[in-house]
Structure formats: structure tokens, C-alpha cells
Amino acid sequence: MSDKVFNLIKPQANFISCRARYPAYVAAWGTGKSMSLIAKGMMESEQHNGNLGVIFRKEFTDLRDSTVRDFEEYTGLKVNSERCATLGNGSQILFRHMEEMNNLQNMNLGWFAIEQAEELDTDEQFFKLHGRLRREGVHRTGFIIANTNGHNWIYRLWKAQRSADYPLFEADSFAAAKYLPADTIASWRELEQKKPKIYRRFVLNSWDESDTVDVVISPEFVEAATRRQIDLRRVSHRLVTIDVARYGDDKIVFYALEGDGDKIRVVAKEKHEKKSTMETVGLALIFAKKHGGEDQSYAVDEIGVGAGVVDRLEELGKHVISVNAAERANVRQGCYNRRAEIHVNGAELLEKGKVQLLADDEAGREQLSWTRYKTVKSSGIFQVEAKDDVKARYGVSPDDADSLLNGLWAMPQAKRIKGRDGYADDSRSDQTAGVEILG
Q1: How far is residue 360's CA from residue 362's CA, in Å, rounded to a whole number?
Q2: The whole model's pTM is what?
Q3: Which of 10, 20, 136, 250 shows the smallest number of beta carbons within 10 Å?
Q4: In whole angstroms, what is the distance from residue 311 CA to residue 298 CA?
């Protein structure tokens, strides 16, 4: 680094000196993330002669106008026209954007760093860089800096799993308050009232806030539905919804739903994997009997192997609502297909406070806010991204969300169950806990 003196807060210092394989510094505004990344990269390059490192940013313009400029200011070194800085010991630091990833195929890196890693949708680029860490005689490491952005791939790798190879260093903006101008701190505090979501994410470093501009279902509505208690004094409809998978990475997901009118309560959940069509049907019947009785409706994703589940349930005399996400929307004008219609329906029910979700269904809660949308400008048609695209971004198929949303969409089509007064008696006073059974 140059002769400048830098004041470090404790998380910065710990991140820079950390010798674990893949450390991360996820921190709020004003906490010196860029300087920390550059200092850590310089330390790796100065400690080993002839080392080779690379600093990545998603977009070229951000790399040129921010990352390279900060590096030259902090270090006093010049980055040449090939976007390379050379140290006195022969070590080199490259500056690249993510579209240039394939150009690194034959490079033997000693270290890599990703600035503003939350800009990346998935962990794919991060793990591709793993394979480039093969330089002999150096401390091989990869590290990132980022802002929080909900429960994204950074959250899963560093915050949730807590592995020794993936240490996480965090700081909110007030941790660096004594090094910042008073009017800067005052302007941040104003955000608490004017823009609370921005305040929580970028000042308090909250993982519960994210960039949801193009998300179909707001995490805020999902969280509210998890806390909500819907009192169903009578139950007019019961339904088991099934997202079917067979012998792949995807999971078979059952939800049990009950409701009256447009109020719906989720009462139970199960997950299975690697089951045949007949096994899936058998498990669904047992699940239905356990949560509401045998005489209820079934909503089944009929695409692919789901068609066999539909056929077998119908052979057994069950009332089945087939769900085909690729079909044309038939209820809501302006939706591109049934998948878009199903997501819009779920978003509206959650926003209006008509749904109670299971409190312990973390996977379903997260997946509900994964899917993004776009509006086709030429026609104004509302379209949501395909399931495979969501899976590519998160590394996990949104089976839980799809099953649940299919059930919310199908609930008005479920057959009415009758008791003495025309409705089934709702004798249960407590909510059935969610269960996850794998295998």
C-alpha cells in the first residue's frame, strides 16, 4: 500500500489479516470495504514473489470507474492499458469483469477477489474461480466484499453455514462513526424515517432486506403471512397440493391447505425425494388422511411425471385439479401464461393478508420471493421467469414455492366439504407443525 495512514475498525482488520481460504467482508456504507479488499490483495501479492491475483467486478464500467480508480488512489500504483498492476517483487494484479471469466482458463492464480459480490445473481462465478487457484508456493485464497442483499448465495455460503473455510466479518455504518463526518451520520439517521428499508440494509447491514424491484412476491408480505394467525371457525375446502419430481435433484413437496372463502391456512408440509409415481400417490394419500381426512381435493403439477400422479389419483376416485404452468392464463388478463397467473394470484392473496403460512417453513418462505418478473413492452403482457432460470440463479429448485402457489391458485376449485351445517367442523384448535421428510 502507499504511505497513507488508514484507520481500521475491528472487522476490517480481522478480514484483512484472516488466513482462512475464503473470507468475506459484508458491511454497510462507510465501513471501508473497497479499501479492505485492495489491502488484502496487496498483502497476498507482497508476501509471495511472482504471485498472480485478480480483482473482479460484474460490470466493466464499474471496474474501470470505481475499482481501478480506488486501487490507484490507495496504493499509488498505476494500472496499465492491459488492466494489470505490477509490484516490485514481480507479482501482478489483474482487473477483470465477469464476462472475461473464460479468459482465465489457463491462468494459475494465487488469489482472487470479487468486489460488490452481491451484484452477482448466483455463486457460479465464485466457484469457477476456485479451480483457478493452483499457483505453487503461495497462500491460495479467494475473498469477497459485499453489501447484504437478502438471503442470497452470499448469505447461504457465509452467514448460514458458518464454516471455518468461510469466515464472515460484518459491520454496520455506526461501527465507523468516529471516522466519518457528522453530517454524513445525520443524513443516514434521517433514512430511518424516510426510507426504512434502505436504512436497515445499507446502514444497519440487515440480511432481511433485499433489492426486490423486480420480484413478484415481496418478502415483506411473506414474513407477515408467517406471523399471521387466521381463525377459521368453519372450513369449507381442504386441499393437498403436490409438486412432483422423480429421481432428480428436485424434491416432491406436499402442502396441506384449508380455508373458507378467500382465507387460506397452511397446516402441514412434507418433502420426499427419489420416489416413483405409485410411491408418490401412496405418500400423498397418507399425508391427506393425516391432515384433514381422505375426502379432499388434490392440486397436482401435471407436467412430466406429474401426469401419472394425476391419472392414478383420478382412478382412485379423487377430485384432482391439474396444474400446467405452461398453459394459457384463463382467469387473469395480461398474464403471459398460467405460471404468471399463479404467481400473481399468490402475490395478491399474501399482500391482502388472506394467507397464513407455516412458521417453521424456512425453505418455502425464502423461495416465495425468488421469482422475478418482466413486462413485455410491446404488449404489456406480464411474464415471470421460468423455474429453470430460478434454479440456475439460486442453485436450488423452487419446488416448495411452486407447490404452495399452485395450491393457493387451485383452492377456489377444490370441492366443498359438508358437515351438519353445510360445512365441515373444524375441531382442531392448533396449527399442525410443518415436517420435512427426505428420502
Answers
A1: 6
A2: 0.66
A3: 136
A4: 12
Kind of pairing between the strands at 84-86 and 92-97: antiparallel
At residue 376 the predicted structure's pLDDT band, cuts being 50, 70 and 90, is low
pLDDT digits (tens, 9 = 90+) for 49-87: 999 999 999 999 999 999 999 999 999 999 999 999 999
Q: Which three cell numbers stand for residue 110?
A: 494465487
**Would you tell me the crossing angle of helices 33-47 and 68-75 to the nearest 10 degrees?**
60
CATH of 10-203, one of 3.90.1720.10, 3.30.450.20, 3.40.50.300, 3.50.50.60: 3.40.50.300
Q: How confident is the model at residue 262 (pLDDT cuts 50, 70, 90)?
A: confident
346: CB partners within 8 A, 6+ apart: 217, 368, 404, 405, 408, 409
pLDDT in tens, 184-198: 888 888 888 888 888
Sheet holding 252-260, edge to edge: 319-323, 297-301, 237-243, 252-260, 263-272, 355-356
Q: Which residue has the cell 432460470?
A: 389
Please state, rounded to an integer, the average pLDDT across all residues of the chain: 88
By the 10 Å C-beta count (0-12 exposed, 13-18 middle, 19+ buried), 300 is classed as buried
DSSP per residue over 142-176, as a string?
EEEEE---SS-HHIIIIIIS--TTS-EEEE-GGGG
Residue type, 263: K
> Where are the alpha helices (H) located in 266-413, listed in sequence order?
277-290, 306-315, 338-351, 362-367, 387-394, 399-410
